[in-house]
Amino acid sequence: MVTITIDRPNVRNAVDPATAAALAEAFERFDENDDLAVAVLTGADRTFCAGFDLKALAAGANYGLREEGRGPMGPTRMTLSKPVIGAIEGYAVAGGLELALWCDLRVAARDATLGVFNRRFGVPLLDLGTIRMPRLIGQGRALDLILTGRAVSADEALRIGLVERLAEPGGALAESKKLAREIASFPQGAMRADRRSVLGQWSLSLEEAMREEWRGGTEATASGEALAGAQRFAGGAGRHGKV
Predict the structure, then answer these.
(1) What is the pTM of this model?
(2) Which bin fits 240, alpha (ψ -120 to 50), beta or left (φ > 0)?
(3) Can you tell me the distance from the alpha carbon of 27 to that of 40, in angstroms, rounded to the nearest whole number?
(4) What pLDDT was estimated at residue 239?
(5) pLDDT for residue 240 is more than 70
(6) What are phi and psi of 190, to 5 degrees?
(7) How far apart are CA 61 and CA 149, in angstroms?
(8) Which residues contact 180 (CB under 8 A, 6 or more apart)?
(9) What are phi and psi of 160, to 5 degrees?
(10) Do 185 and 200 contact (CB within 8 A), yes or no?
(11) Residue 190 — pLDDT band, cuts 50, 70, 90?
């Protein structure tokens, strides 16, 4: 497991071009490192991320905005082979919310705030927020947040599916690391095949998605992982819900 931290607390961890590039590079290294199974993304000083650094933009910073290449916030256009968990304290707003949406799972402190705060400044969502949010919580709820830019409490975020778990204030990172260790403890081949099928099926027909699920599953099975698991089960492991 690795923890990747946005460390710009003086601007509530808003992302400037250098930070975006550093985030993308950090996740590239994570994905290429066979010794790491899960990453946790968080922000320093109990704030996840306030989004695109508008002060840097106003001062003329070159974000290199373009249709191809990395996202303005860094890794948001990347499809990793391994899961990422977002540990959310404080604010996850605007591009910071898009970073959270990019993660596989989100753990939010009970006093966290999420929202499309960029709405009030005329800044569009450019890091797949308009795509991932409707897929996650449904179009109507997504449009409610996108059109109004209103603040969303952690309790509401959990209720509508914007986050998956809540933690006590100050405890999001610890809870995320606990979850990461749990995921990392499982046989990785089958887990990654299932994850790949979930992420890849959106643009496929039912028949195509079925074939892709089958291919990924049979590749994982051919590795011997399933046989080893079946033998452990036959030997008495994993009974009564135990790992």
Answers:
(1) 0.94
(2) left
(3) 10
(4) 62
(5) no
(6) -65, -40
(7) 25
(8) 1, 38, 39, 40, 85
(9) -95, 0
(10) no
(11) very high
